[in-house]
């Protein structure tokens, strides 16, 4: 897999205009123009750059797996350094919007260098993009206008600080708008929770728990065709619990059934549920159930 360490090398590969700044590129489609189209297809690649793009597809379609996505109303896509990128000819389209690309070192020595790592939407997949309302789109575009103005005009000692301040504002708005998207897409959120529980049930009922151990959240998300971060953020907004908490509760629920088999020790129950270390199982059970596995078993016998 090819990795591009500089912004210029990455943009050259993408067949896009060279940047005005060695660590920053800003491209905006104005009036009747379209954004420059990147190369039609690419094997897996990665870069040391961040990318923030507003896609408004005017002609053509974006395919993600077997699903077509409507980006006409504008969708923000975020890409972080060292994420693997790959696409084919299904990405051929004319689009409006903007594309901001910057090397991670552009943020060095600023507060944003650490803050940007906390925005989980940089780990979302293409089909989990932020869909903007017309009003939100205008707010984002006004910020990008300020960034482009500093980028295109004669840059001075203040330009970088101003650009980074505007990037910080853009990301704060994106975070707010994602919160709105999660709240407004209750049907999707509920559907993801159902899918998550169904995947867990299939895993448990097929005997994979005993054979392969406790599934990772990444495994479950992959089965559901969503990114791990998007799944976790969606369930957190919908239920107040993370994917890990949902998985743990399901394991404890299963443990209560197995504990009622008197011929099995606590350690045997732990191993059967995929726990490598019985003491960890006992601590988790007490944390979630309020009593230890031994106390639970004794309580059931009393009743």
Automatic annotation (TrEMBL):
Keywords: DNA-binding, Transcription, Transcription regulation. It comes from Pseudalgibacter alginicilyticus. The lineage of its organism: Bacteria, Pseudomonadati, Bacteroidota, Flavobacteriia, Flavobacteriales. The keyword Iron does not apply. Pfam families: HTH_18 (PF12833). The keyword Ribosomal protein does not apply. This is Transcriptional regulator. One of its GO terms (molecular function) is sequence-specific DNA binding. PROSITE patterns: HTH_ARAC_FAMILY_2.
């Amino acid at each position: 897999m090819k990795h591009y360490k500089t912004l210029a090398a990455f943009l050259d590969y993408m067949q896009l205009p060279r940047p005005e700044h060695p660590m920053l590129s800003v491209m905006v489609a104005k009036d009747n123009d379209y954004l420059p189209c990147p190369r039609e297809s690419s094997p897996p690649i990665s870069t040391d750059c961040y990318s923030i793009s507003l896609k408004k597809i005017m002609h053509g379609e974006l395919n993600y797996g077997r699903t077509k996505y409507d980006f006409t109303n504008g969708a923000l896509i975020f890409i972080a350094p060292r994420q693997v990128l790959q696409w084919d000819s299904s990405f051929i389209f004319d689009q409006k919007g903007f594309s901001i690309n910057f090397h991670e070192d552009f943020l060095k020595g600023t507060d944003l260098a650490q803050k940007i790592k906390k925005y989980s939407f940089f780990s979302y997949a293409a089909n989990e993009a932020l869909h903007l309302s017309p009003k939100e789109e205008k707010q984002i575009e006004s910020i990008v206008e300020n960034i482009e103005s500093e980028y295109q005009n004669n840059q001075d000692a203040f330009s970088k600080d101003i650009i980074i301040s505007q990037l910080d504002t853009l990301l704060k708005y994106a975070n707010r708008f994602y919160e709105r998207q999660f709240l407004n897409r209750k049907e999707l959120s509920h559907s993801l929770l159902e899918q998550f529980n169904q995947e867990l049930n299939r895993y448990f009922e097929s005997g994979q728990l005993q054979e392969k151990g406790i599934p990772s959240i990444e495994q479950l998300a992959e089965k559901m065709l969503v990114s791990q971060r998007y799944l976790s953020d969606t369930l957190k907004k919908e239920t107040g619990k993370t994917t890990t908490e949902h998985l743990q509760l399901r394991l404890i629920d299963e443990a209560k059934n197995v504990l009622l088999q008197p011929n099995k020790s606590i350690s045997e129950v732990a191993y059967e549920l995929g726990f490598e270390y019985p003491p960890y199982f006992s601590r988790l059970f007490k944390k979630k159930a309020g009593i230890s596995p031994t106390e639970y078993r004794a309580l059931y016998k009393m009743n």
